[in-house]
Design a protein that fits this description.
By secondary structure, the protein is of the alpha+beta class. It contains 5 helices and 10 strands. The strands form 3 sheets. Strands 1-2-10-9-8-7 form a 6-stranded mixed sheet. It has a two-stranded antiparallel sheet with strand order 3-4. A hairpin with a 7-residue loop joins strand 5 and strand 6.
Length: about 170
């Protein structure tokens, strides 16, 4: 990885838990819970919430930040995502920093914001409005490492097109 900012928390490594998956995933979850359930960060002066529906006793938003796969009930744990669970909130809270590129896009008919740290770690937020009272917030969609060159190339193009459009 390139030079990382000092505001990033330490990694939570599986090796540090002696191979005990239950203990490890519970620790990773406790970080997520503190960052997104018992409190919430803000992005653009709006709260960031996670999906609260439970899967295997933990919020769906947690599983999207720590595992991979299209099938909600059968995702594969991703140790690199797990290790960086503390980075998700940190990237959101430091989205104005030089090392974080931030731009909107439309996905699946909704406006999403991409926060990309050092072209290495991506956090995706979706704009939401509560129908009952008009409350506006962001929902954490996912976060993951961007290692594949084809994905980086697509993200770079999207980011660069956005920055060109706002800077003329």
């Amino acid at each position: 990885m390139s030079s990382l900012p000092d505001w990033l928390p330490s990694l939570h490594r599986f090796e540090d838990f002696g191979g005990d998956w239950e203990r490890y995933i519970n620790e990773v979850f406790s970080v997520f819970y503190g960052d997104f359930v018992s409190s919430q960060p803000k992005f653009q002066n709006r709260w960031v919430r996670c999906r609260r529906d439970l899967i295997s006793g933990k919020e769906a938003g947690f599983w999207h930040c720590t595992s991979d796969g299209a099938d909600e009930s059968n995702r594969t744990p991703d140790l690199r995502r797990c290790e960086r669970i503390g980075w998700v909130r940190a990237v959101i809270e430091h989205s104005q920093e030089d090392k974080v590129d931030c731009w909107p896009n439309d996905r699946r008919g909704e406006k999403r914001w991409l926060l990309w740290l050092n072209e290495e770690f991506l956090v995706i937020l979706a704009e939401r409005t509560r129908k009952s009272n008009g409350f506006r917030y962001f929902q954490l969609i996912t976060a993951y490492c961007t290692d594949e060159e084809h994905r980086k190339a697509r993200l770079r193009k999207e980011r660069d097109d956005y920055y060109r459009s706002i800077n003329g």
